[in-house]
Amino acid sequence: MRKSPVTRLKIASWNINSVRARPDLVSRFLEQSNPDILCLQETKADNNAFPKNFFTDRGYDHIALNGQRMHHGVATISKVPLEEDLRHDWQDNGEARHIGVRVAGQFRLENVYIPAGGDIPDRNENPKFGQKLDFLERMTSWAQKLAEPTLLVGDFNVAPLECDVWSHKALLKVVSHTPVEVEALSRLQEAHDWVDLGRKFIPAPQRCYTWWSYRSKDYTKNDRGRRLDHMWASPVLAEKVVAHEVHEPVRGWEKPSDHVPLVCEVAL
Description:
The chain is α+β, with helices and mostly antiparallel strands and 268 residues long.
């Protein structure tokens, strides 16, 4: 019996930090990378204001949205059909931070924007930090019940490993790299035996950053980066992921987001 040809599906994830503010940036990335699916976070546009025509004009006819005016927002934009889009309110306050779909009838694709958590790593002094930890715990409960092969992508706002930040010692008490956040993210990872694709293809302690602050005009000068953006796969799906790349040069383009895109390829 003749085997079906293997199809590679290229999936990108990117905190765009306002989709309407960066059309040239998005257009350039799509032309260069040509992903089949683009997962955006922090779109900062409600569903009615989202620039659908911009994407359909480029062949992305399937769009799942969970938007919010001026804040948050996620979107999954695809050249291939998407099924069963749903939205989890892991923030428990109505914020638009998740959109989930099924792809090619084979796996789920979950696009998430985890809260940054404010500046003080103490839930008593800073409610936003508590909301972030609670968000991760709700995700953990969800992950424990997952039965389908799943790809979880997005801005997790946590750099878990010591080598995921420019200075482990300097950032131990800085939100995004504190022990309590790392422990919460570890519980989420263990809940479904998620495979961290970033570190599967770029093993620790190799340098791998996805975010650099706007405070530095030249992000390359001090290279004070953090790995805040992630792609995780269910174990059975991880075996089908054949490539993963961090598109770091995008951070140096004109009017960039402070995050850069991640791209993986899945062999179906």
